[in-house]
Design a protein that fits this description.
The chain has 533 residues and is of the alpha/beta class. Helices cover 61% and strands 12% of the residues.
Length: 533
């Protein structure tokens, strides 16, 4: 970080000595201006905004002390070093009381002055870095609060806060309108039967990254919220300047997202969206109707569904059954056994009654029920890998309606028991792990995670170390390196781009950390893996 300095003295010889007797270049400081009195120095400071000022005290028109006082009145926060021929202690002390950092007596000892300048430069840089960190932290806190507000809005409109949340440009985010696109990775549940946890994290991360890049290219402010694996809620902020939203524009944006994901990941996605804008209080109902439209589409692959304003156009029985199933899952999340049993009874009664008339509809819905339930329970960390395989095997064999319902009910009972006995700390750390995986490219901090979980930073650090057997920094770094290894094997991204994708802004630093953990550079690692193929 280079700094700017200004020299002020009415003696030209001293100005020249100050310019050339101190190693400004080595100190990373540029001389941006000189002045011969306090009046000119104030005028120059308004324009140049120096970080450091070296000034004589005795000068015509305005002396150095008055100049310094007026600088402080005008909120110039530069460091000022005074040069004075006065040796009286009281006078020198008045310089410090006026806000000078230090003073150096004339005749000037330039070695001493260079030391004072170097100390000042170090402290200025430290202060600037802290200011930048504070600004970044404030911005991160606003974005985190905004994301939490949208998550609440998607889950339950009654959770939407009435408080205003502002952009940096003072836009009231709570009054924004959104184009809501729901994105689902095709065949996700099936793929998860062969993917391990790292591969699942990689594909979720890769698709999200493409969605973000495409949203940026389309020129929108946006937020991507992932409420469960393999599914993303993309909310494009819509203003009056964006013009009218209609079915054609909604379809165009959805198609661009599909094309980008297929191009960069070779995976296909299906989307559902509404050809109308939604406000914050409408997002929860919008999410449910878009999810219903998407999940109940037969033989879905690269589907693009522009949903109607209501779910009435869908099969009425599908809607009722889906609502019963949502009540089962909601009860599991709330650990409400009464709600689970009541909703399950209603669901099974309706399915058995319908099976008398149409086995095809019941079989189709049970298929959706299993897929949806497996995804939800995996995200809740309530379904083991073995249980997933067993349930998937039974789903593929397609037994009788009674046997399939019995299989699902047994899984629900096991999950309810596991959820009831799970400790709160495990839930918190599961949420922390999920948050880290979804935001691995960001500059994550302990305070950010602690705020997200609504606990203190010190308690989070202690809990994290106990649960994961390593510090937060160690864990995040290891996750980034492991994700980078997957990218190096499975993608053709450049090394620097992979570094940025997993949270390393500079390629050199990424290479150094990667070598420390893996023993070879990223390029060498990629070459070694290719040689083994």
């Amino acid at each position: 970080m280079r700094l700017k300095a200004m020299l002020v003295d009415d003696e030209h010889l001293i100005l020249e000595n100050l310019r050339y007797a101190i190693g400004w270049e080595a100190l990373g400081i540029d001389i941006v201006g000189v002045a011969t009195n306090g009046v000119k120095a104030l005028e120059a400071a308004e324009q140049l905004r120096p970080d450091l000022v070296l000034s004589d005290i005795r000068m015509p028109l305005m002396d150095g002390i008055v100049m310094l006082q007026q600088m402080r009145e005008r909120s110039h926060d530069c460091e000022v070093i005074m040069l004075t021929g006065y040796t009286e202690f009281e006078y020198a002390r008045s310089v410090l009381r006026s806000g000078a950092r230090d003073y150096v007596l004339k005749p000037i000892n330039y070695e001493e002055l260079e030391r004072v300048v170097a100390d000042s430069a170090r402290d200025i840089r430290k202060r600037k870095q802290q200011q930048r960190a504070n600004m970044a932290s404030q911005g991160s806190a606003i974005e985190l609060a905004y994301e939490k507000m949208l998550i609440n809005a998607l889950l339950d409109s009654s959770l939407v806060s009435a408080n205003k949340l502002l952009h940096g440009d003072n836009t009231d985010r709570s009054s924004l309108s959104y184009l809501f696109l729901l994105i689902d990775l095709d065949a996700y549940v099936q793929d998860c039967q062969i993917w391990n946890e790292k591969e699942r994290a990689l594909w979720n991360f890769a698709v999200r990254n493409v969605l973000e890049d495409t949203a940026k290219q389309m020129g929108f402010r946006y937020v991507i919220v992932q409420l469960r694996e393999g599914e993303w809620c993309l909310l494009l902020e819509w203003s009056a300047e964006d013009g009218r939203l209609d079915k054609g524009r909604a379809t165009y944006y959805a198609a661009r997202l599909q094309e980008s994901v297929k191009l960069f990941t070779s995976k296909t996605i299906s989307l559902s969206c509404k050809p109308k804008l939604l406000v914050l209080q409408e997002l929860a109902d919008g999410y449910r109707s878009l999810q219903l439209a998407l999940q109940l589409t037969p033989e879905r692959s690269s589907a693009l569904i522009v949903a109607s304003d209501s779910t009435r156009s869908s099969n009425e029985l599908d809607v009722i059954l889906w609502q019963d199933m949502e009540q089962v899952i909601d009860g599991l999340k709330k650990l409400n056994r009464v709600q689970v049993e009541h909703a399950w009874t209603k669901l099974t009664e309706r399915l058995r009654a319908e099976a008398i008339h149409s086995h095809t509809l019941v079989d189709r819905f049970l298929h959706y029920l299993n897929l949806h339930l497996m995804r939800e329970l995996r995200d809740m960390r309530l379904l083991s890998e073995q249980q997933q395989k067993e349930l998937w095997g039974k789903l593929e064999r397609k037994g009788t309606t009674k046997s399939m319902l019995g299989d699902v009910k047994s899984i629900i009972d096991c999950c309810m028991q596991a959820a009831s006995s799970r400790r709160t700390n495990e839930v918190l750390m599961g949420q922390a792990k999920d948050y880290i995986s979804r935001h691995i490219a960001k500059d994550l901090s302990i305070d950010e995670l602690a705020d997200f979980l609504d606990i203190s930073g010190s308690y989070f650090s202690m809990l994290f170390k106990q649960y994961f057997k390593e510090t937060f920094v160690e864990y995040v770094t290891k996750q980034r390196i492991e994700l980078a290894q997957s990218f190096l094997i499975l993608s053709n991204y450049a090394i620097g781009e992979i570094g940025k994708l997993v949270g390393f802004a500079e390629r050199r630093y990424f290479t150094r950390v990667f070598h420390k953990y893996v023993g070879v550079t990223p390029s060498e690692y990629r070459d070694l893996k290719k040689d083994k193929e």
